[in-house]
Amino acid sequence: MTRVVRNISIQTIWQLVAKAASSLSTLLVLGLVTRHYGPSLTGVFTLALTYLGFFNLLTDFGFNAHLLPQLVNDNNGKNWQKLLGLRLIWSTILVVISILLIPFLPSNSPLLVLSVILGSISIFGYGLFVTSLAFFQSRIRYDFSTYSSVVGSLGIAGASILIVANLFGLPILLLATSFGWLLAGIVGLFFVSRLKQSLQPLWSSSFFKGTFLAAWPISLTLIFNLLYFRLDSFILASLKSFAEVGLYNVAYSIFQSALVLPTFIMNSFYPLILRQVESKGGQWFRMQFKTMMMAMLGLSVLVAGVTYFFSPFFISLVSGNAGFAGAARSLQILSLGFPAFFLSSVGMWWLIYKKRYKSLVVIYLIGLILNVVLNLIYIPAFSYIASSWITVVSEYLILILQAIILTARKYESNN
User: Fold this and answer.
1) Between the N and C ends of the chain, which has fewer C-beta atoms within 10 Å?
2) Mind listing the pLDDT tens digit for each residue in 252-308?
3) Which residues neighbour 61 within 8 Å (Cβ) at sequence distance 6 or greater?
């Protein structure tokens, strides 16, 4: 157990270093936007990033999570080369789709349209990066993914500073995002090659078809998850204003920075556990997950307390603008959801291990439906404050549904 904890800690620290660089880059760019463009254009900028975020998630499509057990035991690297071939095709298709769907956005102002077009290249770059990440995760080498991520973050920050310093229009800032993700992807592939893995993509129609058919429930789960996280921004844009979208998204950006903690911990924990479960058995596996649940609960309470009490300071530090004072209240409300978000991250991986993919789809579909309905009802009267509360309520519902399914499955197996 001591070795597992040590390995998880080391790999999580590497990921936290990467996220620290990414968060600093994000907050730097957000600070530049809030200070130079104001709440309304901040809303346009963050909405464009939110829209592109949907396609980044589709680029992943659950391939990494589904293929990880195979990649862990993939001694000749052929499965990873097939994944690379699949991602090259899939991410290119998504770049095209992201542009074709722009006219269907609920609020497609010319600035938003141009921003999305210029930022769409980031989808391809993210595809390269997440493919290299699958290899690093299978080898438990998050140091290399950290190097790639840091270089990409520096690229985004540096390009953004140059763009703002030269007084270019806000949509040009999305070119910095595209540049950074392409840089991260290329550097990631470079480090994959340093680990003696061939970068020659393999094209296998049977692999492509089989992976899509097996992974779609995971992808649909992640899509529902992101939709109920971020669809409120588009509802705000259509029912309220870009200024209110800006206030909410500034708070959400800070909130989201802390949400990577459970993700990174589980990214390290899951492959380490997979390597030992066959020799130590299912009972040992369940004990590890229960221990992780308790650890996550304690960590989430700490993060929630710090965020709640320091929300005004965090918002002031990022925006430096009195016009964003309302974002502090939104961040305080969002912080109350940390326990649910941290624990549901563990529950999701537990269900993935059990291959309860369709259960995950149902859980997150229910969360999405509740989230959308409540936002449509309460945003007209309470704006982004309603969205903040609804995000918290939705995640506690997700956690309760996970607990019900896991408990029911345990009861069935005991009988």
Assistant:
1) C
2) 888 887 877 787 777 667 766 766 666 666 677 677 778 888 888 999 999 999 999
3) 90, 212, 215, 216, 218, 219
